């Protein structure tokens, strides 16, 4: 083959390869999300738990506006990380809050232990130890999705140290297993999470988080989830993820909403339909679950000092889908509590 022709074919092959990689979104990250850029510096809290040396990644963002003397802790959901709070961190810091945003054990920039007994109590205890280390004696909690379940558990365990509680489309507003949703084993969860692709995760998020809408900015959060699950730590990431799914399904907080003592802000995108294991349920049971336009109102009546804010035509992640409207309502709601 002539040298010029060989060089031409090599360049064509290289261009095709690069184009294919770009189109298929094949970025991958390390087991603690190494390689994915966070909006603020990530610090490490090292501690011992269940006989193991672990570390939690977290961001500690000081106020950029006039300090109001208050701290707020942001708790991420199952398919999210501390980084997905990027817009909320900025809005809250501008409003004068000190904003602490941890990645829980098993997630994102934090440890993925080989063996860990996951419970919301354990994750709440881990978070409390982090706040003790940071010298924070009282805080507002803001939890999204699964983070709402964790924030509820934390508030129940540490009521005098929880100034306010705020939840954004929390899951766990109902007890799926009590309604009749079938159980999925940890092995089945691991099998499902080992097969994530960019296309499958994007389809799920587009349908459930954004009501069929999509913005280019959302691609980053798909890439984050898929790149972590398919990266060099795939085995430990997938196994910890499966254990966490089991925790969510088997450890409801629904029955204890009535015991919350602090002022509580409940922010609901009413078009959300998120419900664990819906795909395993009968049509009759499936129709009963994940109806956030009903669940928000029901749970607001259970929580003694609740304020309900509803966003029509918004899904599971209103803080990402409509940040201006969300942050205006959040700041106003926290001020009024």
From TrEMBL:
GO MF annotation: an example: monoacylglycerol lipase activity
Signal peptide positions (record): 1-22
A biological process term (GO) from this entry: acylglycerol catabolic process
Keyword Plastid annotated: no
AB hydrolase-1 domain location: 72-207
GO cellular component: membrane
A Pfam family matched in the record: Abhydrolase_1
Residues annotated as transmembrane: none
InterPro entries membership: AB_hydrolase_1 (IPR000073), AB_hydrolase_fold (IPR029058), AB_hydrolase_sf (IPR050266)
Keywords attached to this entry: Hydrolase, Signal
Name this polypeptide is given: Alpha/beta hydrolase
Species per Swiss-Prot/TrEMBL record: Pseudomonas poae
